[in-house]
């Protein structure tokens, strides 16, 4: 097996490199236009103006009012602010106590909903998904109650790439007068974000998924949606998020989002073709390989596979040795390897939910990268299966 | 009056320019070592290693364990996490419901404490301060109750520069077994941060006050102090702060803090001399000028004055026209001009609490800057008084 000379990065769902044009846009705000936007002097006004211009840029893309944008420190903060902010504000208004979300959400939504249930006395319903990870609008409608105060369904799943029918769910939520939040972190820069078309009231984005920096995100909050701030102090962001604004990153987020949508059509087409080549090649060359997520309604950059009788972590380590950066569906930021909660919710048995491999493509990937992965991956799976007692047992069983 | 050709920045308590050495340290992490630290491949390990090295650098300066450092998105988040995190965790353990802080805290503490009172059922006691803005340890001891779960007193005041007797208050808190938090945002990079000497259990810092970027801070949390996360999701920061880490800014924070303390002795001496020249000059040249804050126990860079019969905002606008960036004690981030809550707590009557001018010096200021301000400020105050009805009335009264 040939060693790969350069790194092949196929973990764009985890994070992306900052686009050099984005870095260039941010640079003056650290050392030259460094004013605190709350000041009353020229240096402060420059910073404030840059920030408000960024807000307008973003608002144009989301088709909303600039004042409906709250800049945050990341997608997780946006999700937390949406859930905690609306849940507490709604309860205080006597609207009720019941939250609806899905079992395939990012942990920033799922754990926050669970925390609201376990520590703050809310009730929580998780809407089941089908084997492709699709949330069916009827299933959402079925669990709505008179005391439901918030529905949160992600736009596209971060592990398996399935795109959810957000506008249909939004229509149902709107009919019942319930605020509807979508975690659009994986959709940002790729899928349309028009909040009226999507019929959403709150929407989370994170810049580092679309070639902006890690450490800045936003929450769209439709005018009139009640929201308690999660972080209190100064009156920043119209009293919805206290703290001195990270002006360079806000400029960076807007620049990255604008570039992403200017180039989305071309990038999506090119990357989807690479993805299809990758998926076809893997399914063709590796026996008992399974594509997770919806075969058609999926993010253009996402390929997620299960290879029976292998563990995702073991594949990743082998790929890393060859210079390929990828990820498994399993949560590993705590050091504990657990089966993917997304695959489990889709009905994948636990022993297979350990075995997933997520390859997420991006701007810098080429056909050559895909072909290299198609060359190195099959022997890795084969070798891991060769040392797997389960695989051996299965061989004997079928032999 | 001579026009000033370049800007004179005297609002370092609001924010500072990013040190070019700090920017240089951050740069590789946006475009080259851009990995998500949660990944299992080389690019991720590089990012993770840089972050853990930053944590060690910070821990050395604070004299604590690296794992006791939680990186956050700003000083306000750190303060919120300290107050909300400890208050909720302590209450859940049945420790009680009572919080103690002071009326001169930054709004990130004060408004958060008020929110915990008004929205989450905590009880709150504000310990009074004297006319210099000093919190007396005896006054803290007096209001401690059996159900007190947290004491929060700032290290140095952001408006008037008064340094508080943190170690003495910490000794009292420790004797009573109550977690003690200090908002050290204004002290960072300037005053000693040894958490054992200070006898603190939680300490907030914000990088942009010591020539690091806006949008990153930290909370020191002593091992064993109960803390609920404020932002939930992934297991980042040992389950104390979910969200993909802002690696470049974390590196920047550590670099800035290290540089600040390597150069603190020299910078503090030089800047304090400038401050003393500024204070002496203002008090000498402007009649009925008053220095706010403690005359000796104050931050080396802070000068805060009240000029009777003038409004702070009006002075700022005049200074801005001449290229001098300064601030007033009054909160203006919401657009509403209110008398300073700090001066009010110190017993300054409301009409005078509108009139303060805060000049905070920094690394790039020179004697020439100070002399220029001493030249342009007296005529500004004089002209404003000339059009003040109150000043006129007083003239007639004494004439």
Q: What separation lies between the terminal Cα atoms of chain A?
A: 29 Å
Secondary-structure element order of chain A, as H and E?
EHHHEHEHEHEHEHEEHHHEEHEHHEHH
Q: For the report, how would you describe the main beta sheet of chain A?
A: 7 strands, mixed
Low-confidence stretches of chain A are none
Q: Helix content range of the residues of chain A, please?
A: 40-55%
Helical run tally of chain A: 16
Per DSSP, what share of the residues of chain A sits in E-state strands of 2 or more residues?
5-15%
Largest interface: A-B, 79 and 79 residues
- Could you tell me the mean pLDDT of chain A? 94
The name of the CATH superfamily of the largest domain in chain A reads: Type I PLP-dependent aspartate aminotransferase-like (Major domain)
Give the CATH class of the largest domain in chain A. Alpha Beta
**Tally of distinct domains of chain A:** 2
Tell me, briefly, the overall form of chain A: globular
């Amino acid at each position: 097996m040939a060693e790969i000379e350069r790194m092949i990065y196929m973990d764009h769902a985890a994070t992306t490199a900052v686009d050099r044009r984005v870095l260039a846009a941010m640079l003056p705000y650290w050392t030259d236009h460094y004013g605190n936007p709350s000041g009353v002097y020229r240096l402060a006004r420059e910073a404030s103006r840059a920030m408000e211009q960024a807000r307008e840029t973003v608002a144009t893309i989301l088709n909303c009012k600039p004042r409906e944008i709250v800049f945050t420190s990341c997608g997780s903060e946006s999700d937390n602010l949406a859930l905690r902010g609306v849940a507490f504000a709604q309860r205080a208004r006597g609207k009720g106590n019941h939250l609806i979300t899905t079992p395939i959400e990012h942990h920033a939504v799922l754990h926050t909903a669970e925390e609201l249930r376990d520590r703050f006395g809310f009730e929580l319903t998780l809407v089941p998904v089908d084997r492709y990870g699709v949330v069916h609008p009827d299933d959402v409608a079925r669990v709505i109650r008179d005391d439901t105060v918030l529905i949160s369904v992600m736009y596209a799943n971060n592990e398996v790439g399935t795109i959810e029918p957000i506008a249909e769910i939004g229509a149902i939520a709107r009919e019942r007068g319930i605020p509807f939040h979508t975690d659009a972190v994986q959709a940002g820069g790729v899928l349309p974000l028009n909040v009226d078309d999507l019929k959403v009231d709150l929407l989370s984005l994170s810049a580092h998924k679309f070639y902006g920096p890690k450490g800045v995100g936003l929450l769209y909050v439709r005018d009139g949606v009640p929201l308690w701030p999660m972080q209190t102090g100064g009156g920043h962001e119209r009293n919805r998020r206290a703290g001195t604004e990270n002006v360079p990153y806000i400029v960076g987020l807007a620049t990255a989002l604008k570039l992403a949508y200017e180039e989305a059509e071309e990038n999506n087409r090119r990357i989807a073709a690479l993805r299809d080549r990758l998926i076809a090649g893997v399914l063709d060359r590796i026996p008992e390989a399974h594509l997770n997520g919806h075969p058609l309604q999926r993010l253009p950059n996402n390929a997620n596979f299960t290879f029976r009788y292998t563990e995702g972590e073991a594949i990743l380590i082998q790929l890393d040795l060859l210079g390929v950066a990828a990820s498994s569906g399993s949560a590993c930021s705590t050091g504990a390897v657990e089966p993917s909660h997304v695959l489990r919710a889709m009905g994948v048995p636990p022993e297979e939910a350990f075995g997933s491999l997520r390859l997420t493509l991006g701007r810098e990937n080429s056909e050559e990268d895909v072909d290299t992965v198609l060359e190195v991956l099959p022997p890795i799976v084969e070798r891991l299966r060769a040392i797997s007692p389960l695989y051996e047992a299965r061989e004997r069983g079928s032999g």
